[in-house]
Design brief:
The protein is of the alpha/beta class and 506 residues long. It has one domain. The strands form 2 sheets. It has an 8-stranded mixed sheet. Strand 1 and strand 2 form a beta hairpin. The radius of gyration is 26 Å and the shape is globular. This is N-acetylglucosaminyltransferas-like protein. Keywords: Glycosyltransferase, Membrane, Transferase, Transmembrane, Transmembrane helix. It is found in: Membrane.
Length: 506
Amino acid sequence: MPGSNDFTIDIGDEAICTPDAKVTTPRGWGLTTALNRNSTLISDWTPFGLVASYFVFSTCLYMYCSENLIAVFWFIYMCTNFYIAGATVLEAFMSITPCREARKIVAQAEEKGWLFPTPHDQLLVLDLLIVAYLPNEQDIILDRALYALEQIDYPRSKIRINILYNTPRVIEPLETKLHQLPLKYPHARVIKVPDSTSKADNLNYFFTLDTGSDLIAIYDCDHYPHPNGPRWAVERFIADQDIDIVQGRCVVFNSEDTFLTSMIAVEFDKIYAVSHPGRATMWGFGLFCGSNGYWRTSLLRELKMDGDMLTEDIDSALRAFSRGSKTVHDLNVTSYELAPTTFAAFWKQRLRWAQGWAQASIKHFKMVYNKPQEPLHSDHNRNFTARFGVLSLLLIREISYYLVTQYTCLVLSFVIVKFPSSGEELWKLVYFQYPVSQWLFVVSIICLVATLWITNKVKSEFISRKMIVLFSIQYPFYLILMATIGLYGHARQIVKYSSWNPTARK
């Protein structure tokens, strides 16, 4: 019983009962614990050693290369950087049309007094899921649940707000408060998922339940969905029966907390308002991004989530695309979320994303050349544009980590071997070693400025122009950091690192 001094500990085949806190352990227990601790330590630090060795070896190699060989490497890296910048700005320009369409739809709805096309009684039945890991999100889950239950503007007879959570220990009085929510809000459902250790486990458990819904929306616990977000998403499904997934726009609302959160907020505006819609227009396919995404229930229950993948959301999105699903990015389906406030939390989050993307890229690269298996739509045939988009997303993006870091090592070798005595010499050394560099560098800068200009046009209310300017100034260092994180993710994948580190919440 709770509060009693008696307790039982199972060790192997023995059960040791004792009335006090003294526990007798079998011989060899300490050795096993030490070995496990050392094994974990090696697993944690081996990726760091691999990445550090990579940088040291690459820099030293360039220090001993001939001038002609250096010129070849320089040209290759500048050309690839130009390609990356060019593809980014093309995606940005492609995003202009979806942005205009989203604004036009909002203007039309406003003119009609915010009367949506579909009558309430003809709306689709929606299960909205809020997925949480309580020890990490215990301070915010009740607030987010109450917000969703009270603020989301959708007929309550057509929506169920589901709070799915797992926890390794009982947390009271929070859990009691959560399970009392359905008494006050009939459209609430609170589920403590048994034996769950991840978001994927929580979702897969829910998919076994027969709730009678037409659509399922997935939200991480730190999100505040816009009150009209679900309605916008459902209207898209009703307007186009071929749509299988609607991915909304995620906006960081704690941009003013720290310099880091302000940079992440600009990055998210660039990704969700520019890159994702632009890529979907350019390559012909969109992606579910893990939160603020709406699925047809039948498809999601069929695919489920792969618990062996660190980014089960990207994996499920690619599996859906391999079946020929149609995913659209709707900028009016908005949700507001928290960015990590410390670099340590940011580092852990991005390392998990990097390794997860590496896993997904290895698993799904075959879509570049194979035929769709059991397509959802009879007329689906993956065309050349979509295949090249997959190649760019899964292979070129992963290779770009090496190109960016190799360029960095090359520049570092120049600084070591030919250390400049002035800022002007450093500038020429880094960017203008060879005449072609001037043109490639200038064009790349123009592409960056154009991309950020478009981002400024669609920035959220939490972003200022000052933040965008600061983001553009530190962007080269950001690229190097993200490329290093990408390499770290590859190193973790090599050593089969499998720990799931949830993002810290406040």
